Amino acid sequence: MVLDVGCGDGMSMMPLLNLGHHCVGVDIKLQSLVGFKNDLDDKECLLNIQNNVSLWSQTTSVNANTKLIGNEKDKLNMCNSSMFDLVRWDLRYGLPFKENSFDLVISVSFLQWLFYGPWQKQLESFFGSLRKVVALEGKTVIQFYPASVNQVENTIDIAMKYFKGVLVGDYPHIDRGRKLFLILF
Ligand SMILES: C[S@@+](CC[C@H](N)C(=O)[O-])C[C@H]1O[C@@H](n2cnc3c(N)ncnc32)[C@H](O)[C@@H]1O
């Protein structure tokens, strides 16, 4: 099972779906999630949106009627058989899934958003909950665009409380707009 954090319209999840992995996408923006679903319809994909309650039913912090797709269900035309689930959720509050749910977590160009507002608390919630939801043998790959060296250092400090990992950079010599990959295990 794969989790795509900040999945947007599903661009990064699509290759994994095509390889036959069951994926869960989480994003705050309903529009992106709906766009993803419509795109799939346009391409006549046989994929559907599933309300897989078992994923979050054991978490205490989630109110399924308000925070998850819940009331918007009809718009998304959920059904019960599919290869993916889409969850609407504000990731500043961490990940709303039960423990050991995922073998692989990916996140493309999302993490930097956690630096708006009380970033320390948000990063702690994020990495703390990530440690719980990814299986012990699981892997996480997070690509992000830090705005400063401080952001990189703060991210590493907090992530390393919960994981071991490596940081790989595309353009090591530039400070801003630098594309980094944080690989956690
Ligand atoms: C640059 S887009 C990347 C989308 C996708 N991962 C991709 O590669 O195409 C960043 C995504 O993060 C989502 N996002 C930003 N802040 C968020 C939050 N607090 N909770 C959940 N999703 C958030 C946005 O809605 C957006 O879809």
TrEMBL record:
Pfam families per the UniProt record, alphabetical: Methyltransf_11
Protein origin, superkingdom: Eukaryota
- What InterPro entries does the record point to? Bud23-like, Methyltransf_11, SAM-dependent_MTases_sf
Q: What is the lineage of its organism?
A: Eukaryota, Metazoa, Spiralia, Lophotrochozoa, Mollusca
Q: An example Gene Ontology cellular component term from the record?
A: nucleolus
The UniProt record lists the Methyltransferase type domain at: 57-141
- GO MF annotation: an example: rRNA (guanine) methyltransferase activity
| Protein name as annotated | 7SK snRNA methylphosphate capping enzyme
Give the GO terms filed under biological process for this record. rRNA (guanine-N7)-methylation
